[in-house]
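Supplementary notes for students who missed Thursday's class. We covered one full example, reproduced here. Read the sequence, then the structure, then the short commentary at the end.
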Amino acid sequence: MAVAIIYNVSTISLSERQREYATLRVMGIVLAGVGNAGWAPALYTMPMEFEGMPPERVGVIFSVMLSMGYLAAFISPIVGGAIAEWAGLQATIAIFALFALAAAVCTFRMRETRPGTGA
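Structure (token representation):
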């Protein structure tokens, strides 16, 4: 796919490139939506799965988890801008992609606790 994108960018006119970039933006938004659909259920059920977690404390843990996520969403543009000024946009994207990959790995390494799985 990367070869096709590079070929298209190098051979199409400027007006066609704008259309191509719009298509790539839409593809990026769709991929982000699919990615969110993958991690959101794990995040929403995680507090209920902690060992020894009483039901009355699940709301507190869930609110702390979401607060940390919102704090990261607030801080990441500031940090990303600083990294982009220092190392460039490609390095910034690579660094943030590594954090997203680490989050995905952590999600998939979680122990399954569904009844009947033997966990």
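Commentary. Residues 2-108 form one domain. The chain is about 85% helix and 0% strand. If anything here is unclear, bring it to office hours.
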